[in-house]
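Is this the right way to post structure tokens for a design question? Let me know if I should format differently. Anyway, here goes:
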């Protein structure tokens, strides 16, 4: 957040999208498979932690939106397409890489479906003159930004 904050002009916007933990205690967040094979050194935060770190960096929070339900469908589609293109993927990479990402997508689909993880978009602003019209709502953000 500090890097994004320093790159913005006053009033500049930053849209952060991240996979988030949904309320689990910190010690329950360890996934040896994901940590070891997909995102070594990665760390998922809760939305509360995400907002806290954004505030510490100096951001103002304008909006937070959960995309968990749509990511159930998205993950299912990604998994289906991965499986449909197995031969091409193995030819470009190898069978182990294919299996790793198939397990990753299947596992995340399961975790999204159970409500253990989610996806949140957080619209943040660096304080200063506003670059967003006061009447601008979420439906228009996708068209106007």
């Amino acid at each position: 957040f500090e890097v994004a904050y320093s790159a913005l002009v006053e009033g500049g916007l930053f849209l952060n999208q991240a996979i988030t933990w949904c309320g689990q205690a910190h010690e329950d967040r360890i996934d040896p498979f994901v940590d070891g094979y997909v995102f070594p050194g990665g760390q998922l935060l809760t939305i509360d932690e995400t907002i806290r770190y954004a505030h510490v960096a100096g951001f103002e929070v304008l909006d937070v939106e959960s995309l968990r339900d749509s990511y159930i469908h998205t993950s299912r589609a990604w998994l289906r397409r991965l499986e449909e293109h197995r031969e091409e993927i193995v030819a470009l990479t190898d069978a182990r890489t294919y299996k790793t990402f198939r397990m990753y997508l299947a596992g995340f689909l399961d975790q999204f479906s159970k409500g253990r993880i989610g996806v949140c978009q957080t619209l943040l602003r660096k304080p200063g003159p506003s670059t967003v019209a006061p009447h601008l709502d979420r439906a228009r953000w996708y068209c106007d930004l």
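Format looks fine. Someone answered above. Worth noting: The CA atoms of residues 63 and 138 lie 8 Å apart. DSSP finds seven helices and four strands in the chain.
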